[in-house]
From TrEMBL:
It comes from Solanum stoloniferum. Keywords: Amino-acid biosynthesis, Aromatic amino acid biosynthesis, Cytoplasm, Isomerase. It catalyses: chorismate = prephenate. This is Chorismate mutase. One of its GO terms (biological process) is dicarboxylic acid metabolic process. PROSITE patterns: CHORISMATE_MUT_3 (PS51169). SUPFAM superfamilies: Chorismate mutase II (SSF48600).
Length: 255
């Protein structure tokens, strides 16, 4: 959502953005799975002389976020930091445009969950368990791009929820007042849309992951990424977390 886009806010435009974000996620996944899991990156403690606690990955990620915060990354309501306590002030001034989201949006951040699922469930599912290849900086750069894309997609649930609330305020209001999470979840869920998403991401994974050659008669070779795994990623984590964000945002929408 660009600044000043409030008037264009519609479920269709938000869904178009989610569709475009699928491309980013799948391309970033294809990049990450070139490398093995590289578990040392996430476990390794740095030498005590470095004065840095935590893993090499955590260090790289925190420093990346801190640098990006200086150039205004987290002034955007689409961006949510993984390490909010470690940010620097932005040298870019805040643009004055009417906020689209309710101010309570700032308190909804599920990045801790995303990071845990990413390291403990996603990486083992998508990457080989071959020995560390020592490409730690490059692997972490891929991780950060991918995690930021996943986080942006999942927290886009705030915009989805806002537009659904504006479109059907009378339906949402009583459940918000009653703080009824299950009823809100039911109301915001569109199963047919979810089925389409799962099919589309599998198809994109097949197309984006195919080997491109100049020889048209070559038999189809195994793609770079398993389309079923991408569909599963959306089914088990991306869509449920997006809906979790939607519910969390709505619960606070009348504060
Ligand atoms: C995002 C939406 O809300 C829900 C979540 C979806 C998703 O994460 O892709 C899809 C459909 C809905 O069940 C939407 O309605 O588009």
């Amino acid at each position: 959502m660009a600044c000043g886009d409030d008037g264009k806010l519609s479920l269709d435009s938000i869904r178009d953005s989610l569709i475009r974000q699928e491309d980013t996620i799948i391309f970033n996944l294809i990049e990450r799975i070139k490398f093995p899991i590289n578990p040392s990156l996430y476990k390794q403690q740095l030498p005590s002389s470095s004065n840095i606690s935590g893993s090499l990955f955590q260090y790289l990620f925190q420093e990346t976020e801190s640098l990006q915060s200086k150039v205004g990354r987290y002034l955007s309501p689409e961006e949510n930091p993984f390490f909010p306590d470690n940010l620097s002030d932005s040298i870019i001034p805040l643009t004055k445009c009417t906020p689209v989201l309710h101010p309570a949006a700032e308190s909804v951040n599920v990045n801790e969950k995303i990071l845990d699922i990413y390291i403990n469930q996603m990486l083992p599912l998508f990457c080989t368990e071959a020995d560390d290849d020592a490409n730690f900086a490059t692997t972490a750069a891929c991780d950060i791009q991918l995690l930021q894309a996943l986080s942006r997609r999942i927290h886009y649930g705030k915009f989805v929820a806002e537009v659904k609330f504006r479109d059907s305020t009378d339906e949402y209001k009583p459940f918000i007042l009653a703080q009824d999470k299950d009823a809100l979840m039911k109301l915001l869920t569109f199963e047919a849309v979810e089925e389409m998403v799962k099919k589309r991401v599998a198809k994109k994974a097949k197309v984006f992951g195919q080997e491109v050659t100049l020889n048209d008669s070559v038999e189809e070779v195994k793609g770079k990424i398993d389309p079923l795994l991408v569909s599963r990623l959306y089914d088990e984590w991306v869509m449920p977390l997006t809906k979790f964000v939607e519910v969390e945002y709505l619960l606070r929408r009348l504060d």
